[in-house]
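Chain X:
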Amino acid sequence: MIKTLYYNIKNRWIKNAWMREDQWKKTHGKEFFLIENEQWLEIKNTYEYYITHISSESMAISKEASLFLYSFLLNKKDIKILDFGSGFSSYLFRIIQHDVVSVDDDLLWLEKTKSFLMDKGLSPDNVLLVSDSIWKKKKYDFIFVDLNYVDERIKYIDLILNLTHKNSIILFDDVHKPEYLKELGEKLNKKKGFLLDHLTIDSYGRFSMIYYL
């Protein structure tokens, strides 16, 4: 019981070091709404198909994080997106934006993503291995970080930061894991990272963090 209490206090302390969702809404400068229009309903149906036939719900990006990304990016014009960890997000980004690069460290999974995109009438272009060099020569406006497991993901944070400019935005998924959030805190400015633990939390307790450069 004492060990559990210590673990809960430690987790709360790690989370409290970051900015909160209500502070993000103020910084955002306008009221933020989740957009559940007809296009989103079609995307949601595709998500249900994806977690039934392609991946599992526990491994795929959550429906909640997908809705946030859709709502946040829908009306942004001509932005360059790095989808760092291919999957359903690769489909989602290509539905609403044109300049998208998806990367992964697993060749078999990458081919699965390409096949899924083609099945949905989308181009599999710019779906690349992490080891490819071409995607590392750009600067991106928005980066979604969801590659592999978090203990592998953290190894790429310095590289990801090198692919940003002063107005870039990064969304880190799975920051519900305290050790991952702690490691991010050692590399990032905590005053620029906002935990979206209400807007993006799912049934597994997963949620995201939005980070401004």
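Chain Y:
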Amino acid sequence: MKPITTSLFCHLLLVQLSLSILSTYASQTCIWSGLGDGVSWHDAANWSPAPPATGDSVTIDAGTLLLSASTPQLNAFTMSGGTLTFTNWTTTLQASIITLSGNALFTLPAPFSDTDMSNRVSIVCDSLHIDSTSKIDVSGQGFLALSGPAIPGGYGGGSHGGGAKAYGCPFAADTPGGSGGGSGGNPQWGGAGGGVVIIETGHLQLEGKIVADGGNGTGSKSGGGASGGIRLITTTLAGDGSVAARGGGGKGTEGYDGHGGRISVSYDTAQQKLLSTPSAITFSTRGGTNKNHPGQIGTLAFTDALLFPQEFSWFGTLYLANNNWDTTGLSFKNCEVGFPPETDLHLVDKLIIENSFFSYAYAPENTT
């Protein structure tokens, strides 16, 4: 074996030092200081010691941040307070591990018209944990009054998963909620629709809330907005938090409530069954609850019935990818549930229904 020359030794040493520097950089933690413009994620002066790059970890303890373009692929994102606002439809937060605690909030800007840039909260990660004090809330941040594919007449409530002008797909809940109608010469008074949340993760641990409710009517006679869309794509999910896309309230005795939106949840059934603690997350696409003109329920779509509780208190028309629900006992209490015609419900033992409403819903929208 030939001896290593001095030149080759120096070259190898330089490579080793370079790799060491890269390794050190990859584990860098970037802390939000807000010492730049105090708002933009993309202003380098807001970060210490440097703005986040691929492989970095991010820590945010407080502040109001605006994310207007996708992040690099981060190692970890930890937010223990403050607000992160996503703007632009293509903006995505990308990290291996994302943790929200201490009243942390992900949200969107104001609702948008047909000619504005649309927005959504988009997250791609291996693991997402939202503690009981924190939430993702895009309520009233979908279609603005007089905008969207389903503008109602008069004081009508906005449509989305429910309503006379329902649109979107139950198994791909990625469309914003429609706005409500306004009164007389003030159609702009209609409540805005709910926004969109899309999460792709290996595991979702939810103790907090994910919310996409419709906005309330704002004039003396105006309809509430329909709720938005929440799409969860995960291997497994757990926790006792809530996911809701509920219609907004109509204003005055003549204003109609907004209709429910859409929530879709896909997961790996085999992996979900291996969890030591089953999911206790609740789901609702309830319509607005104005006693004069309440809104219709929206849709809830799942891989199968594995996540369904024995005591059912959810609101929504239930879609199952396998169209099959086998259960040994079932209790419906204080809820409203619809079933598309293709659903097969096989019940062994008793069925209890208390203060609840059942319906078989015909949904003309695309369900593929």
